[in-house]
Amino acid sequence: MTHPANLLPPQTWKTSWKILFRFFFIYFIIQCIPLDLKYFSTLFHIQWGELSFRDIFYLARYTPKFLPSDSPFGGFADWGIIAFIALTGTLIWSFLDKQRKEYNQLYYWLRVIVRYRLAIGVIAYGLLKLFPQQLPYPSISQLNTQYGDLSDWKIFAMSTGVVPSMETFLGLVETTAGLLLFSRRTATIGAGIIITFTGNVFMSNLAYEGGEYVYSFYLVILALFLLAYDAVRIVTLLTLEQPTAPNTVRPYLARPWHRSARIVLKTLFIFFFVGLYGYKTYASYKQNGYQYPTAPGLDNAAGIYNVTEFRINNQELPYSLTDTVRWKDVVFEKWATLSIRSNRYVHPDLANTEEIYAKDAERNYELAGAVSRHYYSYGIDESRQVLFLQNKNKYHQQEKLELHYTRPDSNRIILSGINEKQDSVYVVLNKINKKYPLIEGRRKPLKL
């Protein structure tokens, strides 16, 4: 039986332990502490008087980047560069520091840095789910897009978004795990939860072609590093059912003001990345989130409309399954987005990472990962009854339409004007009183 005293931190480390520690110390310091000039540029350009949760989110999501984001060698290749730097630093450190017997205190503070870095990383995403915004409820356009016209990641996002309560639960788990990391007594529990939860996120990104697989695995690696410290004691106690020793390493704080400064810094850190961020995230949730535009659309127009008549240059085009010019249906969202389904080519916007855009024109969640529909943001001149449409897809930004609208009754809209090719168009839209089983059957018996 292993005596508990043998599991206490040794006063003299083996040479191999010291070499490994030096490597991981340099490696995780580079991974966790911002050293990138772009990070500080972002920090100094924040409008602190108008601080938003978006600003805090990007501060919390920092990872060092040595290669361009769009580089095929980015992501994991950055880790290789960091590992090379750490290896070089280890060789120099080992040559210069041959007398040191142990690194217990330095190991303690490294774990503190990793704990706090991991905590804000998972909480930044957790609060976006706790107040369900990251994966919002599908829009009318998305509900009327064929399954085969959606990317794998879009299907995953929509499948989660239709159950806000589940998204909230996922956010609660993620946020709780992050909060547990702020105390060294509960850090191991938090790390274990994160390995399970974020490991699943990593696998989901791989399975559904998401874009966060590198970052999610980065968080898993940090959690594994934290769990490794207690792994031997956990196995000894729970698996081998033998006595084990407690963690006796405490930070060395020489002066009383060091302790006070530690408490103040910890309080400010948690207030900024949890309290303030949580408050501003909740405020965004109450204002309908950040994925969809906020500008209101045409009054009482939200819904899907069948195109019953379509003319171009005064020539009527009958309904066709193959015509690339004629529109099939049109959707007016509650916000100022209009989508047109047709056979005209749509260059897919495959954005699959979490981005928070402040401007409506930049918010591309509704069209990302989908084809068969062209999405337009629009402005309204109510006095002239004119809609000014701008294609939201970054690959079709040159497309602009100017359409006059009339509303003979509440279920019909007539559009006339010029399209993206400067051809005259005349379109009659009849609203479809469509019932969505997903909505009609929620919390009550469904009748078709």
Automatic annotation (TrEMBL):
Record key words, sorted: Membrane, Transmembrane, Transmembrane helix
Keyword Iron-sulfur carried by entry: no
Transmembrane segments: 20-40, 76-96, 108-128, 189-208, 214-240, 261-279
Lineage, highest ranks first: Bacteria, Pseudomonadati, Bacteroidota, Chitinophagia, Chitinophagales
Keyword Lyase recorded: no
Name of this chain's protein: DoxX family protein
